[in-house]
Amino acid sequence: MKYKKSEAKEYARQTLKGIWTAMPYCWTAEDEFDEPANRANMEHIISGLKIDGHYCSGNIAEFWSMPDAERMRAHEVMIDETRGRIPLIAGCHHQSVKQATMLAKHAQDIGFDFVIVLTPYVAAKDDDAVFSYYEYLCSRVDIGVVLFNTPPHLHAIGPKLAKRLAALPNICAYKQADANPAATSAILDAVGKDLVVSVADEAPWLQSMTQFGLQWLVNYNPHLYQVPGYLPIRDYTQAALAGDITKASKISASLAPLRTLHAKWINGYWRAGKMPLSEMKTWQEIIGMNGGPVRPPVLPIADKARAEMEADLAATGILDHVRTTRVAAE
Is the pTM value of this prediction over 0.90? Predict the structure, then answer.
């Protein structure tokens, strides 16, 4: 451990900063964890995209399809490939609080900086039940624990519950998946002085920094919108931090075509009740990363849709940046 349990909140304040990703895992054709492909993607985001941190084993990584042994092996591989160059969060989501605790202990032992744990989906229908889950977990590990608010899918961690949970010594951050700015404002009023808060969406990131004073973005857009040599999210973030809001706004606005495709291929599918993981992996493949198959019940992308996505991405100009980088490397 890099810090004591009592220091988790301060360590989070110092560490959970900047632009973080969350990537899908890659599987082999035989449906095993594809170690070389996952290592290559990690190297890509660190060396090529200059990412500030990474969240492993999230929803888009298909954690719910993975046996615990495979999840722990994935964490071992990803932390080994990182070699301490960026901080890491381990997703230790599990309906069983004992299994979540076991996964968190493993992440703690192998050197992760934090863990993140979703609220359980069975028997956790009120604040008291959710609190009891996190109290059990936090009493048995020392590592900092990040809350993940995902209404309407799971019981919401509203301001009252967040404040109660923030009293646990190793609850240190809050990932907000509620897109309503009023909901984020209420959370900041309740726990903003105690927990690092991230809105899990790139689109409002400039507003989040300049109006809400947030320091941390964590979601999957940074590696979909950026390629080596073309880092607009990083560029507008740095411009905003330097006080050049005009420059930051101009760069941020240039991402409108990619945000439109995200609304079509990713968010549009989420809203329709489909998990767009094959679409996300296909996007990655088109821009030069590894992707690969998905596991049932997630469905693969159709060939026609793949061709349409490639044409859509080409129209944004991002593939020109991919080709330029390839030519420069040759």
Answer: yes
